[in-house]
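Title: Prediction job returns without error message
Component: structure pipeline
Severity: low
Priority: P3
Assignee: unassigned

Description:
Job completed but the reporter wants confirmation the result is attached to the right record. Sequence as submitted:
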Amino acid sequence: MNIRAFKNSIYSEMAGITKALGNPHRLEILDLLAQGPAPVEYIAEQTDLSVGNASQHLQVLKNARLVSSERQWKYNYYRLADQNVFETWCALRRLGYSQNAELKQLMEDYRNERNGLRIISPSELLEKMKNEEVIILDVRPEQEYNIAHIENAISLPKKDLEKRLNELPQDIEIVVYCRGPLCLSADEAVSLLNKRGYKASRLERGFPDWAAQNLPVETV
């Protein structure tokens, strides 16, 4: 193979990957799979797609070697192919924020509408955990919490929060997290908690970002 053919082959493979990433549904699926393995039925439910459409998007991602699958009983479980895929998704997020002022403004406006929700960094949360100064709420669906979660976090899915508020003490700070910076369940939960008299803030990113930094996690 000559140099030109070699280069064309490499660029063609890269183009296949970027083409697979060029769809909002597939990016949302990657964001979801960053939480852990999931069957196509769960992926379809969480992304508001039909099972057939979700399967088609997953096949594109699999052909691009961005996800892999494994048969467990009667279900096919999909997962990110490796950590490089998650890091690429994070890099795309950062690129979107840095190159698209409208996207950044959209997120800022959303949070300002909720009275400027306080956001804390992973290092701040870690310090509060060491001093036992905080309650950590995981508002993702329980299935994702059961795969893995921040150490000592309490599972309280967003849909159940309002009816279970009386379980939370009001004399200690609450930090809420969900899937990541594009998951707005944490923002909505923090807004509700603050309105009800709690001192609440949201984690800067989400569980996958926390785990990627080798910070304390646990499984059920």
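Comment from assignee: result matches the submitted record. Residues 107-218 form a domain with the Oxidized Rhodanese; domain 1 fold (CATH 3.40.250.10).
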